[in-house]
Design a protein that fits this description.
247 residues, Metallo-beta-lactamase, Chain A, seven-stranded mixed beta sheet, binds zinc ion, RibonucZ/Hydroxyglut_hydro, 3'-tRNA processing endoribonuclease activity
Length: 247
């Protein structure tokens, strides 16, 4: 069974009952924590535990997507949890090890390798986790940033991460069963989608369902979803914390 559970959607900082970006992606017998924004670890723990994950996947190293990798390290290193069979794989853009080690004033980027196994994302990287395939594609966000196309059990899901409309996202999203797309900005500003742009991606790539997420402070999630739906013209939902949907 495939499912997507919403753990957090807020940007650029966590709100009461609304952590920053985080999702539990399940399919093909695998579980992936997709983006680890501040607050999303606590939500993740309502649904699973860190030792049940096959990997963490981080779209880019902005705080609202990566902050809780540090909390995952704290949990695994100091939380008196059952020891992991092996360090937890973390797929993330280059530089995460240095940032995590820097928090502990350690010069060695491998400082966290006792519990986290960092693996660098690159454009086109394909990972198989049991019956779940993840393809990462470099998207336009003004930094080293990735979107994702997941396939399992004959189903497909794409995730924008944070980006402006770009051919790479269109490629990841082409014909998927579910597109999880950010709609951060009320007006086109570069680096992000407006709701209309999110709806337009869904429309031109022929996705079956659109889920709107990462709605920034200039919009409300409901308003963003309505604006995206008007352009898409297909089934459109708002990502709400705690919601689990098949894909
Ligand atoms: Zn963001």
């Amino acid at each position: 069974m495939t499912s997507l559970t919403v753990l957090g959607t807020a940007a650029p900082y966590p709100l009461p009952d609304r952590p920053c970006s985080g999702y539990l992606l399940q399919g093909g017998g695998a579980k992936v924590w997709m983006d680890a924004g501040p607050g999303s670890l606590a939500e993740l723990l309502r649904h699973t535990s860190l030792d049940q994950l096959d990997a963490i996947w981080v779209s880019h190293l902005h705080l609202d997507h990566v902050g809780d990798v540090l909390n995952a390290y704290y949990a695994l290193a100091y939380g008196l949890l059952p020891p992991l069979v092996r360090p937890l794989p973390v797929y993330a853009p280059a530089g995460l090890g240095k940032r995590l080690a820097g928090f502990f004033e350690q010069p060695d980027a491998g400082f966290v390798s006792n519990v986290l196994e960092l693996r660098e994302l690159r454009d086109g990287l394909t990972v198989e986790l049991g019956g779940l395939q993840l393809v990462s594609g470099a998207v336009e966000h003004g930094c080293d940033a990735y979107g994702l196309r997941a396939s399992a059990e004959g189903r497909t899901l794409a995730y924008s991460g944070d980006c402006e409309p770009c051919p790479a996202l269109d490629e990841l999203a082409a014909g998927v069963d579910l597109l999880l797309c950010e709609a951060d900005s009320g007006e086109a500003s570069g680096g992000h989608h407006t709701p209309e742009q999110a709806g337009a991606v869904a429309r031109r790539t022929g996705v079956r369902r659109l889920v709107v997420t990462h709605v920034g402070p200039s919009l409300t999630p409901d308003a963003a979803t309505a604006r995206a739906a008007a352009v898409f013209g297909g089934p459109t939902a708002c990502a709400e914390v705690g919601l689990t949907m098949p894909w």
